Amino acid sequence: NDRLQAEADEARSYRKPAETFRSLSEMPQSADQVLDYFLAVFADRLAFTERGMKTARKCEIRPEALWFYFYRMATTLVDLFRNDVPDIESAFMEQTGIELAFGEGAQSRKDNSIMRIREDTYNGKAIFVEPHVKLNDQKAGAASRRIYFCYDHEIDRIIIGSVGEHLRTYG
Hints:
Helix content is 49%, strand content 20%. It is built from 9 helices and 7 strands.
């Protein structure tokens, strides 16, 4: 029966996230552990490009801060996109206290070399990771940190392309 097979497949899709969640005996102590957790538990909401994974693994953001930001992106921010909220920047700030910017300044946008830094690929598809979450310096443990991403409507999730350093801008 196709319906029973579909239900069994759906139940199996929850097994890995559930096992990962259940095996978590303490908060992740490194960026690697935080990334691995979100890759397993929130795979239906967050994805990472190769550069996104590389920068997340080596970023100097405290693990508890990385957890804080990834969690709010995987939950609140994805829900705002999925519900077609008209002013996502304001709604995200209101609900989480986190600043979000969908674009760079006018001078940066005029400079092709600066904007090319925000080009990336995910599963062979060209993407543009200009939108970014601005990390609070005190919470992140370092100044001027960002998480650059795009929301892909086809796969219905956020794709993270860079974590950590502020990408070069005009100023």
